[in-house]
Amino acid sequence: MIDNQQFASLPLKAISRRVLSSGVLSLPIIGGDMATDDKRFFQYAEGILGERIEAEGKGAETRHDIMHHLLQATDPVTGKGFSREQLNVESSLLIAAGADTTSVTLAAAFFYLLHNPSVMDKLVDEVRSAYTTEEMDRVTPAKLISLPYLRAVIDEALRLSPPVPSLLPREMLKGGIAIDGHYIPEGTIVGVSAYAIHRNPEYFPEADTFYPERWIVSESDTEKYSSPNIPRTRQAVSIARQAFSSFSQGARGCIGRQLAYYELHTALAMTLHRFDIRLSQTEDSTDWREGFPDVIDPVKGKDSEKQGWRREEEFQLYDRFLSDRNGPMVEFRERV
Q1: Are residues 70 and 87 in contact, defined by beta-carbon separation less than 8 angstroms?
Q2: How many H helices and E strands in the chain?
Q3: Going along the chain, which residue ranges are E strands?
Q4: Per residue in 172-215, pLDDT tens?
Q5: Closest listed residue to residue 105, CA positions, set 137, 151, 136
Q6: Four-residue CA torsion sign, 63, 73, 264, 312
Q7: Cα–Cα distance for residue pair 218/148, rounded to 1 Å
Q8: 170 DSSP 8-state letter
Q9: Cis peptide, bond prior to residue 328, ω within 30 of zero
Q10: For residues 48 and 196, what is the distance between their CA atoms, to the nearest angstrom?
Q11: CA-CA distance, 41 to 46, in Å (whole number)?
Q12: Which residues are CB-contacts of 239 (< 8 A; sequence separation ≥ 6)?
């Protein structure tokens, strides 16, 4: 017979935290490869932080980056700085949020540029005409952001290939709300994925088409509809801007949005200014979908004929909360 006094009242959340933080999930037989990779990533982030702290303490030339300000920050009330544990969390967040998201967007931008030669030519002309080689070596991100077509290409790549493609969950507030004739009670977790919003033709006509001009207002009546059904009126561009969700929206929007734009403008502009680029001509590397599972027919299941990706003109993403992808495979040649 079990004595009820042996049991302690402990919330499930507290128990879960103890298990998740114990390292038991990193055992291959329990957590599998995902948990092992997760542990390896956090160890890497902690190692990078340690190197950064050591460099800061040596009194070398100070790098006034984000980590510098985090290391120097103090609470105005207690006078204490961030603990090592808190800095470890910030390190892993900055690496994941600031690296994976940017690399996904750059990969998508190159994919769409190389599959749309006229867009590539227009962007290359804008970048190379704006700055000489000497000027490009000293150009600031703030100046690069002033290039309208460069910004439009980046936004169009972000629209079609959002780095966080799935929904960002939100809890319905008190009183609930009616959405499209359906009542959603308070406490319900709701959300709409950026991928779905960005393909809603109400906000983005011809939503599957890579068309950077949709982000640029045309004052000319002859150019306001330069592509069928994709208006460039001030109202149309405003609607697109309001629906744009690659950085989320509202108070919970991405705090690193401006930094991400700086990174994307700098990396894309400098690459196009310095190199000529084309899709890989190697026969065994042209399939950018290599390594991804085949699309499974939801009715016929695994025995169905292999379908591959249904839209050849779309850069394929896989949802791992952050986007996963393969390729594109491209070749670079330095300009003379």
Answers
A1: yes
A2: 12, 8
A3: 170-171, 177-179, 182-184, 189-190, 275-279, 318-320, 322-324, 330-334
A4: 999 998 988 899 999 999 888 999 999 999 999 999 999 999 99
A5: 151
A6: positive
A7: 12
A8: E
A9: yes
A10: 36
A11: 9
A12: 203
The answer for residues whose C-beta is within 8 angstroms of residue 110's C-beta and 6 or more apart is 277, 328, 330
Encoded tokens for 85: 């544990």
**CA 129 from centre of chain:** 29
* Residues pairing with 29 in the sheet: none
Q: Is the pTM of this model over 0.85?
A: no
Biggest CA–CA distance in the chain, Å, is 86
Distance CA 100, CA 282 (A): 26
147-165 per-residue burial string, b: 16 or more CB within 10 A, e: under 16: bebbbbbbbbbbbbbbbbb
Token pair, residue 190, equals: 């709701």
What CA–CA distance (Å, rounded) separates 165 from 35? 22
pLDDT at 199 (0 to 100): 94
Measure CA of the first residue to CA of the last residue in the chain; give whole Å.
85
d(CA 79, CA 17): 29
DSSP β-bridge partners for residue 301: 297
Output b/e per residue, 127-139; b: 16+ Cβ within 10 A: bbebbeeeebeeb
Write the CA distances from 212 to 22, 95, 236, 276, 322, integer angstroms: 48, 29, 13, 21, 23
Q: In sequence order, what are the beta bridge partners of 184?
A: 177
Residue 150 CB partners (closer than 8 Å, separation 6+): 123, 126, 127, 144, 265, 268, 269
Question: Which among 279, 294, 295 has a CA at the least distance from the CA of 327?
Answer: 279
Contact 322, 328 (CB under 8 A): no
pLDDT of residue 296 exceeding 50, the answer is no
Residue 208 tokens read as 């599957």
Question: DSSP H helical segments within 21-83, as ranges?
Answer: 28-57, 66-72
Report the percentage of the chain scoring pLDDT > 90.
33
